[in-house]
Amino acid sequence: SGNCLTCGFSTVGANIFFYQNQCLLNCPNGYWGNVTGNNCDSCTTGCTTCFSSGLGSCTVCGNDSATIYYKHIGSSVCNTTCPNGQFVSAAVPNLCQPCSSTCVTCQGTAENCTSTTCAQNFYFLNNDCLGACPNNYYADRTLRQCLGCATGCLTCFGSAVTQCTVCNTSYFLQIGLTKCSQTCNAGEFPNALNSQCAL
Known about the structure:
By secondary structure, this protein is mainly β. 0% of the residues lie in helices and 32% in strands.
């Protein structure tokens, strides 16, 4: 009785699975119960436990001799990489972790955005996705990036020298224009209090 060749069903009709000349109700880790033939079949490489064959049927991911596999969030997929919106964390083995909601992709930590495109209403700058761009940058809504203002502009709405709204120190906003310059036109004087030219 301890040297089975094939397996069938329990007294209540449940499948019994063949594994190393035994008939088992549940297959051991690394195997799954294949009801076609009632055998314990090996999980695909990368799956420590699984419910069927393939890297899309894993319940726990593992490693082989040279490769580490990661389980995707909310999925039964194990892969050597994590999908967009998830990242590989050194602190959590074999599980993808979620990126910050502002990042399309990230690496190492949830806030270390790696894609130059951020989520809707956020703008990429220096591996971060920001709700608003800092001084000397403007928000490009198409690219979802913070892009640099022209020299002399503290704040701007575009990259051209004629798209400034506030000037940096030692630059002055020209009267009636959106241009910062280090000098004012004839008949005007530089007002250092508000970085604007005045009459």
